[in-house]
What does this fold into?
Amino acid sequence: QLRLVESGGGMVQPGGSLTLSCAASGFTFSNYDMNWVRQAPGKAPEWVSIIKRDGTPSYYVDSVKGRFTISRDNSKNMMYLQMNNLKPEDTALYYCATLDGSRGQGTQVTVSS
It folds into this structure.
């Protein structure tokens, strides 16, 4: 049974950093391209980043380019999102997802002074 569990969220001040983790189980992680998606209160989900199954290439939504870095460790069935220079508009529930729509419960990121 496919399972995705996110962690690492929290509350930070503008300009701060967080690293999100996604632990995958129940499927062959290394066969899947993986995404980070976020959803702010009252808004539709927004795709943030994708990383191909072998780690390259990766792509980002324009609003996070240069600030966020996606990575994965297939030996550990883990994916990460390093987030630097966080802004209030990055506040959202962040979740990892496969391209076929499977997703975790998410981890909350709040950027506020």
